[in-house]
């Protein structure tokens, strides 16, 4: 028994797919989805954490710390830990540090778009951009080295939460402060729009 359509032939042995001819105007604009690896920035690390789930809830170990040293991240001694909340759809950007490394964790029930841009003059990845969605039912740590501009947008419709570890204590004193700012749209306002397609 054979049943045919314009693109499928069904035989008793199985289902076989044939290449479909699309409309001419569609053939001119259609393209394959890009599944290649995404660009990375030298020194930025994405560390996947193990989330333990059972019928009573979940548990995630964020860090093991010995004498201030953050296990799994070289040359990082914790000096401060912060908790931040972001209102729905709000943007916080751009920050850059000259000395400080940040390690970010967004809980799985929040969803944040993180934009990273390498501003280091002598970096092999100078000018490179990374776009990450963090939280969103995943448990990850993101290591952001000095010289990498970072900003974020709450993609959710409720408050988003962020916990971040720093290897330098905050000081408001100009001679000590390492909190440098760029305008939220310095790299173009469209950078914060949700990808379409």
Describe what you observe in this structure:
This protein has 197 residues and is mainly beta. It has 1 helix and 17 strands. The protein has a domain at 45-180: Jelly Rolls (Sandwich), CATH 2.60.120. The model is unreliable at 1-10 (pLDDT under 50). The two termini are 39 Å apart.
What's a concise summary of this model?
By secondary structure, this protein is mainly beta. It is built from one helix and 17 strands.
Question: What are the defining features of this structure?
Answer:
197 residues, mainly beta, Jelly Rolls, five-stranded antiparallel β-sheet
Looking at this structure, what is the CATH superfamily of the domain at 45-180? Jelly Rolls
CATH architecture of the domain at 45-180: Sandwich
- The count of DSSP E runs of length 2 or more, i.e. the number of strands, is 17
Q: What do we call the CATH topology of the domain at 45-180?
A: Jelly Rolls
What structural class is derived from the secondary structure elements?
mainly beta
Mean pLDDT: 90
Largest sheet: 5 strands, antiparallel
Low-confidence stretches: 1-10
Strand content: 35-45%
Query: Which strand order do you get reading across the main beta sheet?
Result: 4-14-11-16-9
Distance between the termini: 39 Å
Shape: globular
Q: Helix count?
A: 1
Share of residues in helices: under 10%
Rg, alpha carbons: 23 Å
**CATH C-level category of the domain at 45-180:** Mainly Beta
Order of helices and strands: EEEHEEEEEEEEEEEEEE
